[in-house]
Each structure stands twice: as C-alpha cells, then as structure tokens.
Design goal:
This protein is an alpha/beta fold. It has four domains: 19-39 and 109-204, Calcium-transporting ATPase, cytoplasmic transduction domain A (Distorted Sandwich); 45-94 and 217-285 and 592-799, Up-down Bundle (Calcium-transporting ATPase, transmembrane domain); 293-318 and 456-590, Rossmann fold (3-Layer(aba) Sandwich); 321-454, Calcium-transporting ATPase, cytoplasmic domain N. The chain has 27 helices and 21 strands. The strands form three sheets. It has an eight-stranded mixed beta sheet, sandwiched between helices. Strands 1, 2, 3, 4, 5, 6 and 7 form a seven-stranded antiparallel beta sheet that branches. A six-stranded antiparallel beta sheet has the order 10-15-14-13-12-11. Helix 2 runs antiparallel to helix 4. The longest helix is centred in the last third of the chain and has 39 residues, at 587-625. The relative contact order is 0.09. The model is unreliable at 201-207 (pLDDT under 50).
Amino acid sequence: MNSQNAVRFDPSCENGLTSEQVSMRMQDGLNNVTPKKGERTYFGIICGNVFTFFNVLTFIVAGALIWAGASLSQLFFLVIIIANILIGIIQEVRSKRIVDKLKLITAPVATVIRDGQKSVTAVSDLVLDDIVQLETGKQICADCIIAEGECEVNESIITGESVAVRKGKGDLLYSGSYISSGRCFARVDKIGSENYVETLAAGAKKYQKPKSELKNSIMLFIKVVTVFIIPLSILMIVGSLVRSDNPFPMVEDVQRTIMSTSGAIIGMIPAGMFLLTSLALAIGVIRLAKKNALVQDLYCIEMLARVDVLCLDKTGTLTDGTMKVSEMIPLVDKEIPMNDIIGSLISATGDNNQTAVALTNAYGSANKYKLASALPFSSQRKLSAASFHDQGTFALGAPEFVIAAGNEKMEDVVNQYASLGYRVVVLAHSLRMMNGDELPPDMEPLCVIAIEDHIREDAIDTINWFKENDVQIKIISGDNPLTVSEVAKRVGVADADKYISLEGFSSQEVVEAANQYTVFGRVTPEQKCLLIRAQKAKGHTVAMMGDGVNDILAMREADCSVAIAAGSEAARNVSHLVLLDSNFSSMPNVVVEGRRVVNNITKSSSLFLMKTLMSIVLSIIFLLLGKDYPLQTNHLLLLELFVIGLPSFFLALQTNTQRIQGHFLSNVISRAVPGGFALVFNVMAMFLFREFLQSTYGENALSNEVFTSLLVICIAVTGLMVLCKICEPFNAYRVFLIIITSTLMFISMVVIDDLGVVALNLNNAVQLAGLLYVIVLVLVTYFIVTLVMRLLMIIKVMTE
C-alpha cells in the first residue's frame, strides 16, 4: 500500500499517533523503509570478487589448458586465483560486518510523539502521519508538513542553494534537508521511496564521493591491459596456427597453440594487484574501526593519506565543547534580571547549541515573559532574538552582529576577554518589537558574557604531530578571530597570529585571504565552502573536520570530510569518515593508516605491473619474430609466488608513515618499468645466448629442458633482485622478508619438479657456462635497474 491509498490520520502535536495506529501502519507497510543504494550485499561481494574480467579470462584459459591435456603444474595458477578470490571475499565480508555494527551506533534516529509521550525511534520505524520533533542539527528523514513551530531549513541537497529557507506551519519539509535553526513539530506526509529526494535521479543527489586517484589509476590499468591482452592473444593464436606445417590445423597444433598462448595471457593479467588494493583498503577499514573511526567510503582512506591541509573549527576539536559561563560584565548601571531574560530568550528560540547549554546551566530555564515572536540562532546571523509583550526585544550573539559599531565601552570589554581566549557574546535590549527578522535599530547593550571553552589536554600533541608531518592547520570558526587565535596559539598552531575576520567579505576577498591567513573568524557556512575551494585551487588536498550544520557545505567541498559522532546528525550523514569517540586526537591514527595503505599499495603494485609489462613486451617481440611464446604458465610460478605474491602481501601490511609524494600512477610506473625492462632484457639475452651456442656448437648444444631451466632461474632471480630494489631503504622487516622469500624460492626449485627447473650438470661445460651467464646477467641488470630507476625519478620530479 502507498500513502495515496491509505486512510490518513490527523494527530495532535501533544498526543501523536496511538500504538494501535502505529501497528496498523506497520502491518500495511507504511513505514519509512528506504532501499539501501550503493551498499554491497554479501551476494554482491561474492559476485564482485569472482566475476571480474580477468578472473573470467583466467577460467577460460584454464578450461582450454584442461582440454589440451596440460599438466597439473600448468594449472597451478588456478590455485593462486582461487586463493585471491577467497581472501578478497573473506576480508570484504569481515570489513562489512564490522562497519555494519559501527553504523548501528551512528544510525539516524527520530524523536516522535506517540500516545502523548516523547520517544526516540529508528528512522525506518517512522510511519505515515507520525508527529516528529525537529530541531537544529537534525536531518529531516521523511517528507513532512509543519504542524507547529518555525524553523530555517537548508535544502541544498535538493535545490543546490545553500541559503536557509524559513518554514512555518503548513509548509513542506523535504527529506534529506536539515534544520539550520529553530524547532518545530511536523507530521510525516511521505514515507520510504515516495519521499521527494528518492525520486531524484542519482546524479542530482549532492553526496560527494572522494575523488580517488588510486581508484582511477586502477581502472586505467584495467583498460590499458585489456587493450593489449585481447588483440595480442588473437594475433598469437592466429600466428601459431599459421606456422603449423599442416594446411588445416590439427588437434596437436591447437594444443601447442593453447600451451604457448596461455603463458602469455596469464603473464599479462595483474589480477593480484586489484585484490591487493581491495585487501589493503579493507584491512585499513578494520584497523580504523578498532580505533573508533567509521569509514563510510572505502577510498576516503587514500584521500586522508594525501591530505596536506586540515581545516577545522575550534570547538569540539581544539576544545572539548564543555563550555561554561566564566563572567558577566554589565554595561549599564541598572540591575539586569539575567535569569528571567536568558531563560525566556532560550526557551523562546529553542536554541540547543553549546553556547545556549552553557547559558542555561548558568542562568536556568525560566520562561517568565510572554512571547510575541522569536528569531532562532543561525550561523549566518550569528545571533538569536525574541520580542516579548510588555518587555520589548532581547538579542544575544556576536557583539558586532547585535550592536552597530561605535560603542567603545562594549568593544573594549569584548577585545579584553577575546584576547584571553574567551568566547564573547553580548546581551542587548530594545523596547521596540522586531520587524520580521530585523532587530530594532536602537538595540542597547546590557552586558557582555564571557564563556570559557576548555582546551583538550591532547590538543597540543595532536597539533604538533600534524606540524611534524607537513600538514597545515587552518582554523575556520564563527567566533571572534581574536578569541580563536588565542586558543590556537595555546595549542601550538603554526602562524596562529595570522588571523582575520571575514565579516562582510565578498567571495573574491574570501578567496584572496584563504592562503594568507591561518585563523578565520566570523565565517559563514558559504565562506567556509569558499575557503576550502580556494585551498584546493592551489593544489592542496584538503580535509574538513566538522560537527555542525554550519560545516556541511565545506564538508561537501573538501576532498575528504570527517565528522565527530557527538556532532549533528546531518554532518555525520554527509561525511566520509566519522570519529566515533569524537576525539580530535584520533586524527593522526587515521592519517597514518591512510599513508600505510597507499604507500604500501604503490610499492606492491609495481611488482604485479612488472610481470604484466614483461609479458606484453615479450608477446610483441615474439610475434614480430614469428615464433611461439616461450613461457608456459608454470614457468612463472616462482616469480608469481616468491617475488610478487607473498612479498606484496606482507609489504602491504608493514608500517609506513611517510607522506605520499607524487601521483600513484607515475610512482608505480617508475618502479615497475625498470623491473619489467630487466626481465625482458634478460629473457632476450638468454635467447641470444642459446642462438650463439647452437650456431657455434650445433643444435644439440643446449637442450630445451636445460635452456628452460636456465630461463626460469634467470627470471626468478632477476625478479628477486628487483624486489630488493623496491624494498629500499631496508629495515629489519624487509630484510627478513627477502631472506624468507629467497629461501622458499630456492627450496622450491630443488624440491618441486614441475616448475620448469631440472637438475643442472655442473660438470657439463655448456650448462656451467649457462649458469654463470645467468649470474652475470643478474648482476649487470641490478646496476641497470638502479640507473633506470634514478633516471625515471629525475624525469618524474621534473614533470611534476
């Protein structure tokens, strides 16, 4: 049943729906369940890991080899592929389970009125015609109609416009929007897929995924390899069949073609590289979950690793948000009934921000005056106000927004306390009433209230970590810039004395100031967004850490957005990552994990790409020479297992806190090309060596078995040498890894018969010469690889 066919109820705001009515709605399926989009199911994880292009191609090759009567050793690559698939599925499922559990903690909830009682329920348990209470910071979870109260709503997710819209009784509230100020009761008018936001095309929704260089590079790898692998495979098959002695290909010719072509195809597939990337990111998600960080987008880990500018508000990050009124400084000679004024004002506006909580704790919540009209606090206005019958208008907020410039006494007091790091607000009064949202022009300041915001004990260490790791800190706040600057100095923010107020600045002026100052005060939500955009325009990777609705525009603009769990629901919903412990000191752990993942993926990926480059280039060379590809699938097992597979896995797990430099694609290529070149060089050098022996000592000078053994040994040891270069600079972990993999490789050469290696007779002069030739090749290419790597690094630095 849909809402159009349902019997509608008209509950009061005091009583809401009855339990019986709620049960009836649930039975009819009229609850607010929305199909989850973009979230992988367990079936989707299995299919995504099994049915990739390269996996399907591998299974086709395996089927052809089985038909051709290949040995078990030639099918061993299937064991590697299946192991890759199983590991990928297990890690993704494990990661999904952990993330799903954490999402329960931050799952959106709604405050509803039922049976005359206020209660909290899951958003999915809302039913048609429920009465919900909405207040500042809450995201609207279903299309509603306001039944009582007023609020300002940010509908940027729907319209793209960031200007808050004033809503009153009878107005429609769209799901996905959020309350920027005020409080109201509303009746649920649409549920689930009937909500307006669900009818929008996916491209019209404003959630911004991180622009992952890692993901884009991997997709480019897939496209490029696919471009080579398909035509080369066809040409190799056709060429091999054409070279047969029979006018029509016989079964033996087809079998020979399958054997030779399969080695090239399997060699060109860098399947493990994509598994490694998914595995490293999944492990990163699990590690961050253990550190109370909920990853809402897998690739945000990469973006955090690349961050070189971190923008944040003072409150909740440098300070813990536990505000308290320190002092009230009167500006008039008469007695001020603070309890009556503050209590009535906050009760009238419904403000629930940290300043309002501190004031309520200090002066109580009396509701003595009779309300005429109210203006809730908003980040744009930076004040709240209310007009009362027989009392006039009271306004509370940032001094320069409440009182026009020129009151020297007030300004002196404000500057004095702001320089000490206090948040300063002014209480003002006029006997006149407000005209809509406009304050009377004759507002008189009654007093200045100094509010203390406690600095986090770990803030100094956290800021110091960011300084040591080349991450700039920008403080963007709605507070007085002098106050924010003083707090920033105390915790050690570099250049904290470079502060500015953005009050009244044009968009162009904000952009010009973005890279000249460290502390920005009196910033509106739109200006926060401009500051982020300006930083990005200068080539910085910017993270925005926020907790309130005033941060949402900036969080959407940032390369990576981080919310704290104690902040507003709307901020959590648009963020890429949520700090579940709401602790700023967790941020270094998040950045370190990101750096570990990306740096290690970069090193390990170069090993996979090295083999792919070798196979592609050798395929082209042997096509041009008119010869069959010389390597079968089992000939690369030593390289696959002990140079690429095991080392890449353990390299991906090692600690790596280095700041990411350069681009992923150029970094991987600069490491992979020298290794691929070395492998191609040595394989062709081995063929020239055999040609020399056969032309000098006859066709039987070097048997195929012995030559294949020397070739496999040469490829494996050359790969090991490249692994040593990639592991530089050495540490105990990497040295131990090289020793273990080398030992396993040489044991496998001796023990396992089907790897293409046969026992060499060192008493045979030709075989001994061949082995010495392999040793010389490996030593020579070590220096060649070193030289090529340095040249590529120089070129990369010059081009970037």
